[in-house]
Amino acid sequence: MIKNTIILISLLFLTALSAHDQPFRNCLVVGISDGDTITCLMRGNKPIKVRLSEIDAPERNQPFGKKAKQQLSALIYKRWVSLKISGQDRYKRTLATVYYNGKNINLEMVKSGMAWAYQQYLRHSVYLEAQETAQVKRLGLWADPSPIPPYEWRKQERKYGF
């Protein structure tokens, strides 16, 4: 009896672990808020807000904000993507690396000069390398002689009430 109970508890524990350890989830992109935030429909048409991890795109009212949103839309709007979920941010958005056809979309945004590597939350140096290449090539926002990082832009908005 005790042996059966231990086996049952072990099986329940392993099932819980495997359910929690699903690194990729598929969803349909149904909305693009800006260059680093999307809305996806999960199974059962459950919508979730997803913040692309490790990058920071220009704000909507910031130079290149509309272009960043357009770039992200061109890459994944109305497409099925895979999310590698890494947590939640303070606004309860799902943090994830988004993949489409095997491509890391977060990284593609940085490569095209439509987002910064978000150094405060950076875990992979590939984003910094991509940013440096985009800067040298003066791609996207790097064509601006003095682009303002979004976190600085947000500070200015709060301070001056833009």
TrEMBL record:
InterPro entries: SNase_OB-fold_sf, Staphylococal_nuclease_OB-fold, Thermonucl_AS
Gene Ontology molecular function: any one: nucleic acid binding
Gene3D superfamilies: 2.40.50.90
Signal peptide: 1-21
Any matching Pfam family: SNase
UniProt keyword list: Endonuclease, Hydrolase, Nuclease, Signal
UniProt KW Hydrolase keyword: yes
Start and end residues of each TNase-like domain: 29-144
Matching PANTHER family: EBNA2 BINDING PROTEIN P100, SERINE_THREONINE-PROTEIN KINASE 31
Protein name as catalogued: Nuclease
Organism, as annotated: Rodentibacter rarus
